[in-house]
Amino acid sequence: MSNFEIRIASSITSELRDLAADADRHMASLYPAHGTRPVPIESFMGTDSALVGAWCNNQLTGCGAARLLQTSTGNIGEIKRLFVSERHRRTGISTAIIRELESFLLHAGASASLLVTGIRQPEAVSLYRKLGYVERNAYGDYAPDLLSVFMEKRLVA
Fold this sequence. Notes:
Helix content: 25-40%
Oligomer: single chain
Strand order of the largest sheet: 1-2-3-4-5-7-6
CATH superfamily of the domain at 5-112: Gcn5-related N-acetyltransferase (GNAT)
């Protein structure tokens, strides 16, 4: 496992923008344009959200975000924008980012963490399952989609 540090982003840097653009290009290579809806990273700078980066040797190698959603049944969280640069994959960075985001959501009062990934990302689906996520129906503004895999994990302290 490589040495890395997970830090909450206090501002949007050019490195974060570049990594988010890499993530968008990667998703565009896997799915049709109408199948992806990347959320701008700037939208995760509020008090009800968190944007984190993974740093390895002073280089940004991964990122992820989470936001708190208020529903009629209570607060839930959603993980978005998880991406690790290709040469740093399979090093534990994704797991560390997810755990940091789940911790944020739990402390913010979320009872569950939701996410959507795609069928053309079997490694991501496998990772989420390993971390306790289970498949579920579409949620929120999402419509059922043959290319999408909707997942959920109950959060407990």
